[in-house]
Amino acid sequence: MKKIEAIIRKTKFDEVADELREAGIEFFSFWDVRGVGQTRQERIYRGVVYDTSTIERTMLSIIVRDKNVEKTVLAIMKAARTGEIGDGKVFISGIEESYRIRTGEYGDESLFIKGKEE
Amino acid sequence: MKKIEAIIRKTKFDEVADELREAGIEFFSFWDVRGVGQTRQERIYRGVVYDTSTIERTMLSIIVRDKNVEKTVLAIMKAARTGEIGDGKVFISGIEESYRIRTGEYGDESLFIKGKEE
Amino acid sequence: MKKIEAIIRKTKFDEVADELREAGIEFFSFWDVRGVGQTRQERIYRGVVYDTSTIERTMLSIIVRDKNVEKTVLAIMKAARTGEIGDGKVFISGIEESYRIRTGEYGDESLFIKGKEE
Ligand SMILES: Nc1ncnc2c1ncn2[C@@H]1O[C@H](COP(=O)(O)OP(=O)(O)OP(=O)(O)O)[C@@H](O)[C@H]1O
Ligand SMILES: Nc1ncnc2c1ncn2[C@@H]1O[C@H](COP(=O)(O)OP(=O)(O)OP(=O)(O)O)[C@@H](O)[C@H]1O
Ligand SMILES: Nc1ncnc2c1ncn2[C@@H]1O[C@H](COP(=O)(O)OP(=O)(O)OP(=O)(O)O)[C@@H](O)[C@H]1O
Ligand SMILES: [Mg+2]
Ligand SMILES: [Mg+2]
Ligand SMILES: [Mg+2]
C-alpha angle with apex A91: A118 to B28, nearest 5 degrees? Predict the structure, then answer.
């Protein structure tokens, strides 16, 4: 099990959520964050001055089975990208255990719904 | 040291906090999150249609010593459970180091108050 | 790569951000959290009764290269400290991979800007 944290433009949230659903990733949590990046000094990129300090960001936290890491990252990278400074970041870390509170299920089983997915 | 992240129903917060205190877990952080789960497709469970998209969630982040992991998880699982779709999840991951800013203490020592707990 | 999570007094945010910038740490995310600490029972420290339940906290999440962990922690510990009960905590954990969405860069490269830093 892995945790995928993505910090994306708030304006890209719906596209990312759609792309994740298409990839079969149905569960995640999200909240608003603010970011300090190349925000304090304005930054010039291809002749344009960027001040990213005011970009609103959304943090997504998605716990997935190992076999779903790659497609989750690809879905986010595809849908969150504009190509302009400030598109955000994706971070991967390990998760040692997971429980579904309602049933007490744990491990991979707690991360998908039986009958709905292989 | 481990991090326990729990995503619970907002309405269950007080019960969970009480149960944690009774288990001797006195420190944690929390904030509001929203979740995408079986939210996009309504889901039928025991004849009832659930749309969990509107359930407000609270994220709890609790860093505990290894010896306290089990009782923390049990306290959350007990208090956060309604038995209906959407009760939430608990995730465990590793923490490599911890510091108490006021004193500079680190390691297990930074996670409890001397004299108050063994 | 490591993740440094710091829970600090909201009133200390600007000082911490400045100290991080001086240490060369230019990227991080942050959001408001609330904390349960020695908050439920008031706590007496050097003769003063502290009720930390009402202290507003900010969570900082900073992913850095291994070589920058120490200076990041030191910057936070220095700037966030008042010496009074409730200054907060710093936690370190491992990050397995990082991606910059705009460019697809990954690994250490995704964490700094070429030409700006060694
Ligand atoms: N190392 C980091 N740790 C934590 N959060 C980060 C980190 N880097 C970026 N972020 C978060 O992501 C947001 C967007 O970052 P941003 O896309 O500007 O990254 P970048 O590396 O500067 O890429 P770009 O060159 O495309 O701007 C930041 O405002 C911050 O919230
Ligand atoms: N894999 C996951 N990664 C991140 N957050 C998740 C994940 N699964 C669930 N969550 C969060 O927990 C909330 C509640 O999930 P929920 O209880 O519906 O899980 P579930 O597995 O669908 O269990 P149930 O079958 O009881 O509904 C979601 O809205 C989301 O915020
Ligand atoms: N173990 C923990 N897990 C998660 N969050 C924590 C933990 N300990 C503290 N926090 C967060 O940090 C905030 C501040 O904690 P606080 O500074 O009171 O820690 P402390 O160990 O009690 O130190 P002090 O003795 O200086 O008060 C808490 O309100 C909570 O949000
Ligand atoms: Mg940037
Ligand atoms: Mg559900
Ligand atoms: Mg305290």
Answer: 95
